[in-house]
Design goal:
Elements (H helix, E strand, L loop, with lengths): L13 H12 L5 H7 L6 H8 L13 E9 L2 E8 L5 H13 L5 E7 L1 E8 L4 H19 L1 H9 L3 E9 L7 E9 L6 H21 L5 H5 L2 E8 L5 E10 L11 H17 L1 H21 L4 H12 L9 E4 L4 E9 L13 H9 L5 H23 L4 H16 L4 H10 L7 H12 L2
Antiparallel strand pairs: 1-2, 3-8, 4-6, 4-7, 5-6, 8-10, 9-10
Helix pairs in contact: 4-13, 5-7, 9-10, 10-11, 10-13
Length: 442
């Protein structure tokens, strides 16, 4: 090994962590310390707050925080906060919002809000015997044992919806689940769900040990493997859609409304049947979803995992969005499974998260679900609109232009030159470098 392991790194002060990293990995180059320090907040209390969000924190990692205006969602005009580093995401969402602004905007429907969690356990017992025990004794005990945990959630209108015994012994020997469904109202609910499940595990162990119908050998075979929520929530789903007459699909690319509708629908159909395309198609949807998820202090890894699992729910990975052009009506929609919250976690702590939620009118969790689905649908519409007309690179690379120029230390005067130069051309990395060399050699 070129480097030495460190003991007790988490117990070191922030400065000592930095000193060790620079000494061990960065050849004692103190310029790296300046890079870290320039992202510290000048407000010591705010900096401490950020450092306590996670572990072993030595600096803050900034992402652009942008605004996509003109979103008409269920009759309300909103400006969406988006935390994202990828060029053209905010621009594409904004352009799609403006396109649908005079066509009735986006309509949403909450299909369901059910969240799931499991107690996974192994028990060497006949399934019918366990099912009888569950139906006539255990289920009631599980609900009673969690009454204190669920009290506040039940006051808000949520709580445990149901508990089922799932027999998985055909897939893994002696493997069963307690599958519980929850309504967590305005919270994402991870801590609440996991607390309930851990109590399920304890109660299951106690009740099996006290069950007269089980032999001692059966009792001894019980193993509680784990108690954990599932980020796959196929019954926590929102639908967002847009529609208009095909004759109103005015596009400035030069193709007819009918051709645009046909090509757009065909592009969606390709994503429905071709996993290679569907992966990129859905990634684009999540560009829009994740940007708002991050801005509102929610877990974008959970939303990603859930969306992609849902996209493969029928045994083949497919598009999350769908399109029809029946009877002269263009309709484009998404059914998005997503579990988010507007209370708890960072929503009560991070100043920019508070700003985001205030900007959105302090939405309920269901309203935020709708906003997120709309953001994903708008991003997908913008991407497909470009793909079937001018091509994706024209808009994307134009937004990426400043990133390329900044890599080469371009001046403001040089940047303005390139804005004019690429006004009627497609930006390419090679062309930028070539023109920059010409400009500087004059």
């Amino acid at each position: 090994m070129q480097h030495q392991p460190v003991e007790g790194f988490s117990k070191l002060s922030k400065q000592r962590k930095i000193d060790w990293l620079i000494s061990e990995y960065l050849s004692n180059d103190r310029s790296y310390e300046q890079i870290l320090q320039q992202y510290w907040n000048n407000d010591d209390n705010l900096q401490k707050l950020h450092e306590e969000f996670s572990e072993n924190t030595i600096s803050n990692f900034y992402m652009p925080y942008g605004i996509a205006p003109n979103f008409l969602i269920d009759g309300k005009l909103l400006a969406l906060p988006m935390a994202v580093e990828e060029s053209s995401v905010v621009a594409a969402a904004s352009k799609a919002a403006k396109f649908w602004l005079d066509k009735g905007g986006f309509k949403t429907t909450i299909i369901n809000t059910e969240k799931l969690g499991h107690t996974h356990f192994v028990l060497n017992v006949e399934p019918h015997k366990l099912l009888h025990f569950f139906n006539f004794k255990l289920k009631k005990k599980l609900l009673e044992a969690t009454e204190d945990i669920t009290a506040n959630m039940r006051k808000r209108g949520g709580g445990i919806l149901d508990i089922k015994l799932i027999d998985k012994t055909s897939e893994l020997e002696n493997y069963f689940q307690l599958k519980a469904s929850f309504d967590t109202v305005d919270s994402m609910g991870a801590n609440f769900i996991n607390s309930c499940l851990e109590q399920f595990g304890k109660t299951l162990k106690e009740e099996v040990a006290n069950e007269a119908e089980f032999s001692q050998e059966e009792k001894d075979s019980l193993q509680i493997v784990m108690n954990i929520l599932s980020n796959y929530t196929p019954d926590c789903v929102v639908r967002a859609e847009v529609s208009c007459k095909i004759e109103d699909l005015k596009d400035d690319s030069g193709i007819s409304n009918e051709e645009f509708a046909w090509k757009f629908k065909r592009a969606v159909t390709i994503a429905e049947i071709e996993p290679y395309r569907a992966t990129t198609h859905n990634k684009g949807i999540m560009n829009g979803v994740d940007a708002v998820v991050i801005a509102t202090g929610n877990d974008f890894r959970a939303t990603e995992a859930c969306a992609h699992a849902y996209a493969a729910r029928n045994g083949k990975y497919s598009s999350l969005t769908h399109c029809t052009t029946d009877n002269g009506i263009f309709r484009f929609w998404i059914d998005l499974p997503i579990s988010v919250g507007v209370v708890g976690g960072l929503t009560n702590l991070h100043p920019l998260v508070k700003f985001s939620l205030a900007l959105l009118g302090k939405p309920t969790a269901q309203e935020l679900m709708s906003i997120l689905a709309v953001s994903g649908l708008a991003q997908n519409f913008g991407a497909l609109r470009s793909l079937v007309t001018t091509g994706i690179q024209k808009g994307h690379m134009k937004m990426h232009l400043f990133n390329i120029l900044n890599q080469f230390g371009a001046t403001e005067e040089e940047k303005q030159h390139f804005v004019t130069y690429f006004k009627d051309k497609t930006v390419s990395h090679h062309e930028v470098i070539s023109e920059l060399e010409k400009l500087r050699n004059k």
